[in-house]
Amino acid sequence: MAVNPSAIEDYVKVIYAHTEWQKAPITSSVLAARLGLAASTVTEMVKKLVAQGLALHEPYGAIELTPAGTDLALGMLRRHRLIETWLVEQMGYRWDEVHDEAEVLEHAISDRLLDALDDRLGNPVRDPHGDPIPTRDGVLQRPDATLLSDLEPGSRATVVRISDRDPSVLRHLEAEGITLDIDLTVLDGTPSGATVSLGGARVELAAEALASIWVARLP
């Protein structure tokens, strides 16, 4: 049975994105959870990715992309993130609404239309959540950043990326005034959360929110 090209694109994109902001490799069980699919379904698809030269995988081991798989993943990330940017900047969507729309549109638009969107948007280098947008040549420049949860009290930093995995977290952070390029100071922290200061206001952040925010340290 032929493999749906859109399914292949979704798999390589998720595999790549899993390690884009952290080093832990992805396993079949984690991939199944991310995709919301049965483990047996994912195992069969990973075998097909290996057969097509897009991935490397040993039984019970991590899944890695080959150069060909990485190129395909970067192309899909470019599509997804440009579409998200277009939806926010020109179509009136909020940043917590665009992920699912982009998941559909990224498989449908042509390369010509994608490049036209890129030019119309002024060739943006990041999407509304701070994720870097690969260039037309497949180059991705990730900013030097660390999780907010890893900063010690007294640290000052600028927000450079907020994960879009949970729309409710995005809405909560926006309501608290925490968006891209905001400067903040860590006042205190515990395993269950932390308090930060921005613009003179104190904001309490739970562990889930802290784990969604990447920052660049300030002197």
Write up this protein:
- With 219 residues, this protein is of the alpha+beta class.
- The protein has three domains: 5-65, Arc Repressor Mutant, subunit A (Orthogonal Bundle); 78-142, Winged helix-like DNA-binding domain superfamily/Winged helix DNA-binding domain (Arc Repressor Mutant, subunit A, Orthogonal Bundle), CATH 1.10.10; 146-218, Ferrous iron transport protein A (FeoA) (SH3 type barrels, Roll), CATH 2.30.30.
- Helices cover 41% and strands 19% of the residues.
- It is built from eight helices and eight strands; from the N terminus they run H-H-H-E-E-H-H-H-E-E-H-E-E-E-H-E.
- The protein has a six-stranded antiparallel sheet with strand order 3-8-4-5-6-7.
- The mean pLDDT is 93.
Would you summarize the structure shown here?
The chain is of the alpha+beta class and 219 residues long. It is built from eight helices and eight strands, in the order H-H-H-E-E-H-H-H-E-E-H-E-E-E-H-E.
How would the blueprint of this fold be written?
Elements (H helix, E strand, L loop, with lengths): L4 H14 L9 H8 L3 H13 L3 E3 L5 E3 L1 H24 L7 H8 L5 H10 L25 E2 L8 E7 L4 H9 L7 E8 L2 E6 L2 E6 H4 L2 E6 L1
Antiparallel strand pairs: 1-2, 3-8, 4-5, 4-8, 5-6, 6-7
Helix pairs in contact: 1-4, 2-3, 4-5
